[in-house]
Amino acid sequence: MFDVRLQFGLLLICGCLAIFVNETGSLVLAAIAILLLACQNQYRLGINWFLMYCGLLLARYLITNYLSDTFLNVFLLMLLIALKTLPTIIIASGLAKVPSGKLIASLQKLKVPESILLTFTVALRFFPILRAESKIIGENAKIRGISFKQSKNWLHPLQMFEYSMVPLLMRTIRLADDLSASATTRGIDAPCKKTSHYEIAFQPKDAVGLVAGLGMLSTLWIV
Protein backbone atom coordinates (compact mmCIF):
# COMPACT_ATOMS: atom_id res chain seq x y z
CA MET A 1 0.00 0.00 0.00
CA PHE A 2 1.02 3.62 -0.45
CA ASP A 3 2.35 5.67 2.44
CA VAL A 4 -0.58 6.76 4.59
CA ARG A 5 0.55 10.39 4.49
CA LEU A 6 0.41 10.27 0.70
CA GLN A 7 -3.05 8.70 0.76
CA PHE A 8 -4.24 11.32 3.20
CA GLY A 9 -2.88 14.07 0.94
CA LEU A 10 -4.62 12.55 -2.08
CA LEU A 11 -7.85 12.43 -0.08
CA LEU A 12 -7.62 16.14 0.70
CA ILE A 13 -6.72 17.02 -2.90
CA CYS A 14 -9.60 14.98 -4.29
CA GLY A 15 -12.05 16.41 -1.76
CA CYS A 16 -11.12 19.99 -2.68
CA LEU A 17 -11.07 19.40 -6.43
CA ALA A 18 -14.45 17.66 -6.40
CA ILE A 19 -16.04 21.02 -5.53
CA PHE A 20 -14.62 22.90 -8.52
CA VAL A 21 -14.28 20.43 -11.41
CA ASN A 22 -16.95 19.86 -14.03
CA GLU A 23 -18.64 16.54 -14.80
CA THR A 24 -15.79 15.32 -17.00
CA GLY A 25 -13.27 16.25 -14.31
CA SER A 26 -15.32 14.38 -11.72
CA LEU A 27 -15.28 11.31 -13.97
CA VAL A 28 -11.47 11.55 -14.25
CA LEU A 29 -11.17 11.85 -10.46
CA ALA A 30 -13.26 8.71 -10.02
CA ALA A 31 -11.13 6.81 -12.54
CA ILE A 32 -7.92 7.87 -10.76
CA ALA A 33 -9.37 6.91 -7.37
CA ILE A 34 -10.32 3.44 -8.61
CA LEU A 35 -6.90 2.97 -10.22
CA LEU A 36 -5.28 3.88 -6.90
CA LEU A 37 -7.19 1.03 -5.26
CA ALA A 38 -5.99 -1.33 -7.99
CA CYS A 39 -2.37 -0.19 -7.49
CA GLN A 40 -2.74 -1.13 -3.81
CA ASN A 41 -4.03 -4.63 -4.72
CA GLN A 42 -7.55 -3.79 -3.56
CA TYR A 43 -9.07 -5.16 -6.73
CA ARG A 44 -12.38 -6.34 -5.32
CA LEU A 45 -13.04 -3.01 -3.66
CA GLY A 46 -12.12 -1.19 -6.86
CA ILE A 47 -14.46 -3.35 -8.95
CA ASN A 48 -17.34 -2.73 -6.52
CA TRP A 49 -16.84 1.03 -6.70
CA PHE A 50 -16.53 0.86 -10.50
CA LEU A 51 -19.85 -0.96 -10.82
CA MET A 52 -21.54 1.46 -8.44
CA TYR A 53 -20.23 4.50 -10.30
CA CYS A 54 -21.31 3.04 -13.65
CA GLY A 55 -24.75 2.36 -12.18
CA LEU A 56 -25.09 5.98 -11.06
CA LEU A 57 -23.97 7.22 -14.48
CA LEU A 58 -26.50 4.96 -16.19
CA ALA A 59 -29.30 6.15 -13.91
CA ARG A 60 -28.38 9.78 -14.60
CA TYR A 61 -28.35 9.15 -18.36
CA LEU A 62 -31.75 7.48 -18.34
CA ILE A 63 -33.40 10.17 -16.23
CA THR A 64 -31.86 13.00 -18.27
CA ASN A 65 -32.72 11.60 -21.71
CA TYR A 66 -35.81 9.42 -21.34
CA LEU A 67 -37.69 10.36 -18.17
CA SER A 68 -39.28 13.60 -17.06
CA ASP A 69 -40.96 14.06 -13.70
CA THR A 70 -40.70 16.48 -10.77
CA PHE A 71 -39.81 13.71 -8.34
CA LEU A 72 -37.20 12.34 -10.72
CA ASN A 73 -35.64 15.80 -10.96
CA VAL A 74 -35.06 15.69 -7.22
CA PHE A 75 -33.57 12.22 -7.60
CA LEU A 76 -31.37 13.52 -10.42
CA LEU A 77 -29.98 16.21 -8.11
CA MET A 78 -29.15 13.54 -5.55
CA LEU A 79 -27.39 11.54 -8.27
CA LEU A 80 -25.30 14.53 -9.29
CA ILE A 81 -24.24 15.10 -5.67
CA ALA A 82 -23.35 11.42 -5.32
CA LEU A 83 -21.27 11.48 -8.51
CA LYS A 84 -19.43 14.57 -7.24
CA THR A 85 -18.59 13.13 -3.83
CA LEU A 86 -17.95 9.51 -4.80
CA PRO A 87 -14.27 9.93 -5.86
CA THR A 88 -13.41 11.24 -2.39
CA ILE A 89 -15.32 8.39 -0.75
CA ILE A 90 -13.48 5.86 -2.92
CA ILE A 91 -10.09 7.10 -1.73
CA ALA A 92 -11.33 7.16 1.88
CA SER A 93 -12.43 3.53 1.54
CA GLY A 94 -8.84 2.60 0.74
CA LEU A 95 -7.65 4.39 3.88
CA ALA A 96 -10.18 2.40 5.90
CA LYS A 97 -8.12 -0.74 5.17
CA VAL A 98 -5.03 0.70 6.88
CA PRO A 99 -4.36 -0.71 10.40
CA SER A 100 -5.32 1.76 13.13
CA GLY A 101 -1.83 1.87 14.60
CA LYS A 102 -0.22 2.67 11.27
CA LEU A 103 -2.82 5.29 10.49
CA ILE A 104 -2.32 7.05 13.82
CA ALA A 105 1.48 6.90 13.59
CA SER A 106 1.41 8.39 10.07
CA LEU A 107 -0.91 11.23 10.98
CA GLN A 108 1.15 12.01 14.06
CA LYS A 109 4.15 12.57 11.78
CA LEU A 110 2.03 15.16 9.97
CA LYS A 111 1.53 16.95 13.32
CA VAL A 112 -2.24 16.51 13.14
CA PRO A 113 -3.90 17.81 16.36
CA GLU A 114 -4.91 15.03 18.73
CA SER A 115 -8.61 15.96 18.68
CA ILE A 116 -8.77 15.77 14.88
CA LEU A 117 -6.64 12.61 14.88
CA LEU A 118 -9.01 10.81 17.25
CA THR A 119 -12.12 11.88 15.33
CA PHE A 120 -10.68 10.90 11.94
CA THR A 121 -9.41 7.52 13.13
CA VAL A 122 -12.67 6.56 14.82
CA ALA A 123 -14.68 7.68 11.78
CA LEU A 124 -12.66 5.53 9.36
CA ARG A 125 -13.12 2.50 11.59
CA PHE A 126 -16.76 3.19 12.38
CA PHE A 127 -18.37 2.76 8.97
CA PRO A 128 -16.84 -0.63 8.03
CA ILE A 129 -17.81 -2.02 11.43
CA LEU A 130 -21.29 -0.54 11.09
CA ARG A 131 -21.71 -2.25 7.72
CA ALA A 132 -20.73 -5.58 9.27
CA GLU A 133 -23.21 -5.04 12.10
CA SER A 134 -25.95 -4.18 9.60
CA LYS A 135 -25.26 -7.44 7.77
CA ILE A 136 -25.52 -9.43 11.02
CA ILE A 137 -28.82 -7.73 11.91
CA GLY A 138 -30.17 -8.52 8.43
CA GLU A 139 -29.19 -12.19 8.74
CA ASN A 140 -30.85 -12.46 12.16
CA ALA A 141 -34.00 -10.84 10.79
CA LYS A 142 -34.04 -13.28 7.88
CA ILE A 143 -33.86 -16.24 10.27
CA ARG A 144 -36.86 -14.86 12.17
CA GLY A 145 -38.82 -14.36 8.97
CA ILE A 146 -38.85 -10.55 9.13
CA SER A 147 -36.61 -9.74 6.18
CA PHE A 148 -37.43 -7.69 3.08
CA LYS A 149 -36.04 -10.62 1.08
CA GLN A 150 -39.30 -12.42 1.90
CA SER A 151 -42.15 -11.05 -0.22
CA LYS A 152 -44.77 -11.48 2.51
CA ASN A 153 -43.13 -8.67 4.49
CA TRP A 154 -43.41 -6.09 1.69
CA LEU A 155 -46.92 -5.21 2.90
CA HIS A 156 -45.51 -4.02 6.25
CA PRO A 157 -42.71 -1.54 5.40
CA LEU A 158 -42.99 0.44 8.65
CA GLN A 159 -42.74 -2.71 10.73
CA MET A 160 -39.74 -3.85 8.71
CA PHE A 161 -38.10 -0.46 9.17
CA GLU A 162 -38.56 -0.78 12.93
CA TYR A 163 -37.07 -4.28 13.04
CA SER A 164 -34.02 -3.26 11.01
CA MET A 165 -33.26 0.34 12.01
CA VAL A 166 -33.93 0.30 15.75
CA PRO A 167 -31.39 -2.49 16.46
CA LEU A 168 -28.92 -0.78 14.11
CA LEU A 169 -29.29 2.56 15.91
CA MET A 170 -28.75 0.89 19.27
CA ARG A 171 -25.64 -0.85 17.95
CA THR A 172 -24.41 2.44 16.50
CA ILE A 173 -24.43 4.10 19.91
CA ARG A 174 -22.59 1.19 21.47
CA LEU A 175 -20.05 1.01 18.62
CA ALA A 176 -19.19 4.68 18.97
CA ASP A 177 -18.52 4.22 22.69
CA ASP A 178 -16.50 1.05 22.11
CA LEU A 179 -14.30 2.63 19.44
CA SER A 180 -13.64 5.73 21.54
CA ALA A 181 -12.81 3.58 24.59
CA SER A 182 -10.49 1.41 22.50
CA ALA A 183 -8.59 4.44 21.22
CA THR A 184 -8.30 5.88 24.71
CA THR A 185 -7.05 2.56 26.09
CA ARG A 186 -4.31 2.52 23.47
CA GLY A 187 -3.12 5.93 24.66
CA ILE A 188 -4.43 8.13 21.86
CA ASP A 189 -4.86 11.08 24.24
CA ALA A 190 -1.76 10.47 26.36
CA PRO A 191 0.34 13.67 26.74
CA CYS A 192 3.67 11.86 26.30
CA LYS A 193 5.51 11.29 23.01
CA LYS A 194 4.14 8.21 21.27
CA THR A 195 6.04 5.47 19.47
CA SER A 196 4.96 2.86 16.94
CA HIS A 197 6.32 -0.43 15.63
CA TYR A 198 5.25 0.60 12.12
CA GLU A 199 8.02 2.01 9.94
CA ILE A 200 6.67 5.21 8.43
CA ALA A 201 8.72 6.13 5.36
CA PHE A 202 8.11 6.87 1.70
CA GLN A 203 8.86 4.03 -0.73
CA PRO A 204 9.63 4.05 -4.47
CA LYS A 205 6.14 2.78 -5.23
CA ASP A 206 4.72 5.98 -3.74
CA ALA A 207 5.82 7.71 -6.95
CA VAL A 208 2.68 6.24 -8.52
CA GLY A 209 0.61 8.11 -5.94
CA LEU A 210 2.44 11.35 -6.70
CA VAL A 211 1.67 10.92 -10.40
CA ALA A 212 -1.97 10.29 -9.48
CA GLY A 213 -1.99 13.52 -7.47
CA LEU A 214 -0.69 15.45 -10.48
CA GLY A 215 -3.36 13.78 -12.59
CA MET A 216 -6.02 14.99 -10.14
CA LEU A 217 -4.70 18.55 -10.32
CA SER A 218 -4.90 18.43 -14.11
CA THR A 219 -8.69 18.05 -13.89
CA LEU A 220 -8.90 21.77 -13.11
CA TRP A 221 -8.03 22.47 -16.76
CA ILE A 222 -10.62 20.07 -18.21
CA VAL A 223 -13.39 22.03 -19.90
From TrEMBL:
It is found in: Membrane. The chain crosses the membrane at residues 46-63, 75-95. Keywords: Cell membrane, Membrane, Transmembrane, Transmembrane helix. It comes from the Bacteria. Pfam families: CbiQ (PF02361). Its main location: membrane. InterPro entries: ABC/ECF_trnsptr_transmembrane, ECF_transporter_component. The keyword Transmembrane applies. It is a multi-pass membrane protein. This is Cobalt transport protein.
